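Dear colleague,

Thank you for sharing your sequence with our group. We've completed the structure prediction you requested, and as agreed, I am returning the results in plain text so they can be pasted directly into your records. Please verify that the sequence below matches your submission; if there's any discrepancy, let me know and we will rerun it promptly.
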Amino acid sequence: MRLNGGYTAIEMMVVMTLVGLTSTIALVNHTKQLPQQNLRLASRQIISHLRQLRQKAITRNTRTSADFHVNGDPLPDNRYALWDAGEKQLPAHIRFGYSPEVNQTPKSGPLSASSEDGISLNGNQVAFEPNGTASGLGGYIYLTNAPLSFPDTQPPGPQYQTVAISVNITGHVKLYQWKNRRWE
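Please find the predicted structure tokens below.
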């Protein structure tokens, strides 16, 4: 029977240990989710920028464009330039491209050599005309959180995701996500 109603040192240590373990588990789970969150952020930003460019082309009655660069020329890798908003950088650990298990386009066609760098748009550029259409035949912008290469001991796994942003000739911008060996 306690007379003073306080906690013992052992009880306090047990509580502190439980709080520490819970915090560690939460931090590990948050760290694992960061690449997926960055991929969602990057895809939403690009879609938003493309839709804004299309709207500006229509409202200002002028041609607008976005240039995607993956080989360091003239912009550093994983950057894109917008018609009137300057240069944008992809979040950390996100790159143009797709993970190794992706083997088709969102429309179930074979991946072409032109999309190996992650951009299948003509000249790695999309341009919107004053009537809202996209010049050229359209194409895809692929983004992934997968590294460029995998060591033999670490095959690609479910922690790596790929998304595709399509821009069709009518100017429509749509997001696809690679899940369970198919596009959704």
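Summary note from our side: The two ends are 63 Å apart (CA to CA).

Kind regards,
the structure core
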